[in-house]
């Protein structure tokens, strides 16, 4: 066991984690040249296209140092704030972490937040300064930042370039010397923690686990503590690029288990696996995920509802931060109310449903969770605009607030503060990390940053600002429900909960946007935005009409009027019985309001 090292790689997005993982695999000879490709651990098409890591990936390497064979279990993690739950799960399975910082960009918000996660779990931090080969790298300044942040010595920071392959050997040596070997008793009752799972259509659910105590043997009966169900360990093994079966897995090791489980709800990430014959205690898992953004996902064809449900269950195995429950909508039929960690997470889930499961879905307007206090003293949670109680019974509404940490160059301070104040934010403090880099803290409503805050922040700071946020609680606000009506009928999928001060502007912009997106019909369509009974904005889409007076040349005006009146009556009847077709883009229009 003293020859095992479990470590993960943490960093801000785009600081070179996956490229560094490639070099480590190459250097240790885990992959041959034929298997090698760029970002080899990012095995989803979506990850390669977007250039981001979405899932954390575990892989085992063998490394020889001073005549001893070491087993290194590496977990590559995502860097985007929306996937921080993946990072927290990987950290729970490790004893050490490589903290990677880009020499040209310095420390960013997510670097700090992931570092705190690692320190909470008492991990050994190995700081690595990556991309030192870039022409605009600033190794000295950034090393100072790292020393100040972690409190290590200057010589502890390893200088590397994953692209050029520099410093790779130093990193591996540091992992062996600095990261402690896993503790655990191989003879104690079995305790293994599930840190990930994935659905395989041929073999059922594959479970990835880390053994803390005891030994897992092939064919033994194992028990999952939270569901209290027992299974046979049909196949266990270690994770190289492909799975390699073993007969037993001792304490401290990371591996996979296949036991032919077919039902997705029986596997919980964070659960403890123990032996059925000699059960052990449950391990302390990681805290439950708190969704930040809620949106409805509906099948385009109502007949595909059951298929969508099965797809969601399989997807939840692979992404434990996805939370969902059933919901019905008057406009869209049966669907799901889903909780996501952020807008990027929502976009990725939608893409994965379409690619991996061939499901075409409609996503409704995202919202956050509000708390409503009623006049009778009760309190309810509101996840969707349709759950908003009657205004006469409402005493007050509280909305979630977050603490946002923004790190940027000092020249963009003015623009960033202006943006945050527009979004109802309050600046709390400002701290200069170096002469040129500033860390700012804001308290702001979560509902304001859900939509396009991150995009705007990136564009006003030319991509330099980085953002990290966490929930700090609920505060009372003046929120109202804004309904959208087409020809007098409410479309519940388009309604939103907004602050009263912004409701009129929001309603006007939404009506203008819908006018562009909803196609013209044979009858006139009125688009209205209303708060309760009060209409705050209106746009009209004029009807497509045939020129009925084209055949009248000369003659009396009354003949033309008669034809026009006849047409008018027809249009009126058509409007009463006709339905307005709303395209999918219209439901997403709300996201793109400037």
Automatic annotation (TrEMBL):
Biological process according to GO: positive regulation of translation
Topology relative to the membrane: Peripheral membrane protein
Pfam families in the record: EFG_C, GTP_EFTU, GTP_EFTU_D2, LepA_C
GO molecular function: GTP binding; GTPase activity; ribosome binding; translation elongation factor activity
Record PROSITE patterns: G_TR_2
Enzyme class name: hydrolase
Reactions mediated catalytically: GTP + H2O = GDP + phosphate + H(+)
Compartment list: Cell membrane
Keyword list, A-Z: Cell membrane, GTP-binding, Hydrolase, Membrane, Nucleotide-binding, Protein biosynthesis
Top-level taxon in the UniProt lineage: Bacteria
Any one annotated GO CC term: plasma membrane
HAMAP family: LepA
Role: Required for accurate and efficient protein synthesis under certain stress conditions. May act as a fidelity factor of the translation reaction, by catalyzing a one-codon backward translocation of tRNAs on improperly translocated ribosomes. Back-translocation proceeds from a post-translocation (POST) complex to a pre-translocation (PRE) complex, thus giving elongation factor G a second chance to translocate the tRNAs correctly. Binds to ribosomes in a GTP-dependent manner.
Family: Belongs to the TRAFAC class translation factor GTPase superfamily. Classic translation factor GTPase family. LepA subfamily. Belongs to the GTP-binding elongation factor family. LepA subfamily.
Name recorded for this polypeptide: Elongation factor 4
Provenance organism: Ohtaekwangia koreensis
């Amino acid at each position: 066991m003293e020859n095992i090292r479990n470590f993960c790689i943490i960093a801000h997005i785009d600081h070179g984690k996956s490229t560094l993982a490639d070099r480590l695999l190459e250097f240790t000879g885990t992959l041959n040249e034929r298997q090698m490709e760029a970002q080899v651990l990012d095995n989803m098409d979506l990850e390669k296209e977007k250039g981001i890591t979405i899932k954390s990936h575990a892989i085992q390497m063998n490394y020889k140092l001073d005549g001893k064979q070491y087993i290194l279990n590496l977990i590559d993690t995502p860097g985007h704030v929306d996937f921080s739950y993946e990072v927290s799960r990987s950290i729970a399975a490790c004893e050490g972490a490589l903290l990677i910082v880009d020499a040209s960009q310095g420390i960013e918000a997510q670097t700090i937040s992931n570092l705190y996660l690692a320190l909470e779990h008492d991990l050994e931090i190995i700081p690595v300064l990556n991309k030192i080969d870039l022409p605009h790298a600033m190794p000295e300044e950034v090393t100072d930042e790292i020393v100040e942040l972690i409190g290590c010595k200057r010589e502890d920071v390893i200088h590397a370039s994953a692209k050029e392959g520099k410093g790779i050997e130093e990193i591996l040596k540091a992992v062996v010397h600095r990261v402690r070997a896993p503790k655990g008793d191989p003879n104690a009752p079995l305790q293994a923690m599930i840190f990930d799972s994935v659905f395989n259509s041929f073999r059922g659910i594959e479970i990835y686990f880390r053994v803390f105590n005891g030994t897992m043997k092939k064919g033994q009966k194992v028990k999952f503590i939270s569901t209290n169900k027992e299974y046979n360990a049909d196949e266990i093994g270690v994770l190289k690029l492909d799975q390699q079966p073993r007969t037993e897995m001792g304490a401290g090791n990371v591996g996979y288990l296949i036991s032919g489980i077919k039902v997705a709800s029986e596997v919980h990430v964070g659960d403890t696996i123990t032996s059925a014959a000699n059960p052990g205690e449950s391990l302390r898992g990681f805290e439950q995920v708190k969704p930040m953004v809620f949106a409805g996902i509906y099948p385009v064809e109502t007949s595909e509802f059951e298929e969508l449900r099965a797809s969601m269950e399989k997807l939840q195995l692979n992404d434990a931060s996805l939370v969902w429950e059933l919901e019905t909508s008057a406009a869209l039929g049966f669907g799901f109310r889903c909780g996501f960690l952020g807008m990027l997470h929502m976009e990725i889930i939608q893409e994965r449903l379409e690619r991996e499961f061939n499901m075409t879905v409609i996503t409704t307007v995202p919202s956050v969770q509000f708390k409503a206090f009623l006049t009778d003293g009760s309190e309810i949670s509101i996840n969707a605009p349709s759950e908003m109680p009657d205004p006469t019974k409402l005493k007050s509404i509280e909305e979630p607030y977050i603490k946002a940490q923004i790190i940027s160059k000092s020249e963009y301070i003015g623009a960033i503060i202006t943006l945050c104040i527009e979004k109802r934010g309050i600046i709390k403090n400002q701290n200069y990390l170096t002469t040129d880099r500033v860390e700012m803290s804001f308290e702001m409503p979560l509902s304001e940053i859900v939509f396009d805050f991150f995009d705007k922040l990136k564009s006003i700071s030319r991509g330099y600002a980085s953002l990290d946020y966490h929930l700090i609680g609920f505060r009372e606000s003046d929120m109202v429900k804004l309904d959208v009506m087409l020809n007098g009928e409410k479309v519940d999928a388009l309604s939103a909960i907004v602050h009263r001060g912004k409701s009129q502007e929001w309603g006007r912009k939404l009506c203008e946007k819908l006018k562009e997106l909803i196609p013209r019909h044979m009858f006139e369509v009125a688009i209205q935005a209303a708060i309760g009974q009060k209409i705050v904005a209106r746009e009209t889409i004029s009807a497509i009409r045939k020129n009925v007076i084209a055949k009248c040349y000369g003659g009396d005006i009354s003949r033309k009027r008669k034809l026009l009146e006849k047409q008018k009556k027809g249009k009126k009847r058509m409007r009463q019985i006709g339905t307005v077709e709303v395209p999918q883009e219209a439901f997403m229009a709300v996201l793109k309001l400037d």
